[in-house]
Amino acid sequence: MTLASTRRLSTGIGLLMLGAGCATKHPDNPALDAYPPGIVGSTDVVYYDIHGKTARELVDDMRRLGPQGGRYFGEAQSPLRWNWQTKSDGEGCRTSSANVIMRSEITMPRWSPPADTAPGLYTQWKTFLSGLETHEIGHKDISARHAREMLTSLRKMSGFCGSLDTERRRITSGVLTRLREEQLKYDADTRHGATQGAVFPARVTRPGAP
Q1: Considering only CA atoms, which of 78, 91, 93 is closest in space to residue 138?
Q2: Which residues pair with 106 in a beta bridge?
Q3: Cis peptide before 201 (omega within 30 of 0)
């Protein structure tokens, strides 16, 4: 069996400042908290508990309890929010301040192996979990790069006062379109995390097989 990992898109759009905040700290994996300069970002990891002592039981639980009705074993959602202020410079208007806020939520399975777990299963699980986390962080990082692109473009805005709102809508819509496209490409390139180790149970290659 192969993992049906995540293809999450940062589709959240808003023009309301949610307030600056500090990123949630994850000492076990600092990559969860990594955001580009200027982006107000945080990452929360949400777990769903699964049970079992065999690979089949774990897969069945993930398909039952995982995100989107078990369609995926993991998920990353990173909606973007933004706001801005403008001021007149005598010849037109320009952006005086802009903010882009990103609140990421990564959903992951959590398993505590019982004493009678099948031999070698926990090692497979740790490899899978690491690969899945890497994949979901990749989705988060794609959103973060586009958040930075959006922030840079918004800060550079200037022109006739009456045209700035239209231009901002063009900028934000374009960034979100490119973001969706890159998220889809990322899933295609990684086969939903399979190339990053997000496969459970591990595939066994028979001697002589390609």
Answers
A1: 78
A2: 45, 76
A3: yes
What are residue 38's DSSP bridge partners?
none
- Whether 67 contacts 7, CB under 8 Å: no
pLDDT of residue 204: 52
Supply the DSSP symbol for 192: T
DSSP-derived 3-state class of residue 102: strand
DSSP-derived 3-state class of residue 80: strand
CA distance 81 to 196: 30
Choice between 72 and 18, residue whose per-residue pLDDT is larger = 72
Q: What is the pLDDT of residues 201-210, one digit of tens each?
A: 987 544 444 4
Residue whose C-alpha is closest to residue 136's, from 49, 6, 2: 6
In the block, residue with structure tokens 């063009």: 170
CA angle 134/107/13 to nearest 5° reads 95
